[in-house]
Amino acid sequence: MDEWLLDPPAGGLLRIIFELIGRRYDAASTIFCTQYKQSDWRARLDAGALADAIMDHVVHDTIWVETGGLNMCEVYSRPEH
Questions:
Q1: CB within 8 A of 17, min separation 6: which ones?
Q2: What's the pLDDT tens digit per position in 46-60?
Q3: From the centroid of its chain, how far is CA 70?
């Protein structure tokens, strides 16, 4: 999922994310690409029990690859690029 949680999910999108992640859990890999630290994801989901359920599926049996604090969107928005 590219740009994971760039905008907090609204309306029925949170339910769709829950269903998608639930179906893939223990069956397939899911890659989350985001500018946000994992510790901020729950707050960005902002949906109580549904957010907890999503995060429960996401954080178990996970391999985290941190690429550092550099935000490439900021780098390429500079005038010299």
A1: 9, 54
A2: 878 999 999 999 888
A3: 17
- Is the whole model's pTM more than 0.90, yes or no? no
The structure tokens listed for 77 are 């928005």
Give 3-state DSSP helix, strand, coil % of the chain, rounded to 5. Answer: 45, 0, 55
Which pair of tokens denotes residue 27?
Answer: 């069956």
Residue from 59, 44, 36, 37 nearest 14 by CA: 44
CA distance 44 to 3: 13
Tell me the residue length of the chain: 81
Distances in Å between the Cα of 60 and the Cα atoms of 14, 56, 75 are: 19, 6, 32
CB of 66 within 8 A of CB of 35?
Answer: no
